[in-house]
Amino acid sequence: MADEKKEKWCFRNSSLIVVFFIAGPLVLPFVWFNPRLNIKTKAAVTIAVLILSYALWMMMQASVKSIGEYYKQIFS
Fold first, then answer.
1. Longest dimension (CA), the chain
2. 20 CB neighbour count, 10 Å cutoff
């Protein structure tokens, strides 16, 4: 066990998921530098992250617009 190389924290799947929830698409460099993943997996993860990030961005914009309209009704 002494000659087993310890995996870096930034290449563990759990770390990638946590970084995605904290920083969104900024996790992609960690995915692409991960030596354990093949190119198909990296491409699939990249597409999934970009689609999910876009969807979350659109939901956030709709929420901010809705809140803005609500405050206009209250203060008008």
1. 70
2. 20
> pLDDT per residue over 7-24, tens digit each?
788 888 888 899 988 998
Side chain identity at residue 57, one-letter code: W
Whether 2 has a pLDDT exceeding 60, the answer reads no
Classify 12 as helix, strand or coil: coil
Amino acid at 56: L
Neighbours of 19 (CB within 10 A): 18
Sign of CA pseudo-dihedral 52, 53, 56, 57:
negative
- Sorted by sequence, the CB contacts under 8 Å of residue 56 that are 6+ apart come out as 24
Q: What is the pLDDT of residues 60-69, one digit of tens each?
A: 999 999 999 9
Cα 65 to the chain's mean position, in Å? Answer: 23
Through-space distance between the first and last CA atoms of the chain, rounded to whole angstroms: 70
